[in-house]
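dumping this here so i dont lose it again. seq + smiles for magnesium ion
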Amino acid sequence: MIHFENVFVAYNSQPILTNVSLEIKPGDFVSLVGESGVGKTTLLKLIYFDLPPDEGNVSIAGFTSSTIKKKEIPKIRRQIGVVFQDYKLLDDKNVYDNVAFALHVTGVKRNEIGKRVLRVLADVGLSHKRDSMPEELSGGEQQRVVFARAMVNDPIVLLADEPTGNLDPATALDILQLMKTINSRGTAVILSTHNYELVRKAGGRIIQIKDGKVSEIESI
Ligand SMILES: Nc1ncnc2c1ncn2[C@@H]1O[C@H](COP(=O)(O)OP(=O)(O)OP(=O)(O)O)[C@@H](O)[C@H]1O
Ligand SMILES: [Mg+2]
């Protein structure tokens, strides 16, 4: 479903990813690990077509980086849920509208939007907070709204970049549980994290980036 073929990425002629080949299948749960600055976010950006590789190819769901047209990029992004490091909710919209916003831009019909938003808020356990403003939520609750927003389009893959970085251990575990639930319904999950405890609890594949190379490891 996601395929990296001999991918090379450099920033200002500084190599970050060198000759990376990788296959991610539907329903995989992948933890992406490696020291700070090693290229985890860069790898996720490649999947999101936010960054073209300097060499090689990244393919996802039938689209390939070397041949994709600019106007096709939004189409593939709609099938990818993202929870990035610097996640932000819209401060002037309540929980419901923060999630619905992701659907308005894709042209889904109004009553369909209502159904999907309420379903996904129930999935993350926040139905009772639908009218709350972001500032009235705890950090963990805000992060669950971000996940709801990422899931509302039923993505084929969820990219989560250090989603538990600012959360206490118990809340981080809640978020992991949420990702596993999403995964059990068929969405592949790629979780980039420094939290090895979480990786052990996740129990899926572990992919490590080190010195520009990507390798699959058994345990951490
Ligand atoms: N737009 C950019 N221009 C130049 N250098 C960049 C750019 N984006 C990232 N880098 C550099 O590329 C390297 C990899 O960055 P990346 O964000 O992928 O690391 P990371 O593994 O996600 O780190 P962290 O765990 O701290 O989030 C870093 O050295 C970073 O400084
Ligand atoms: Mg990063």
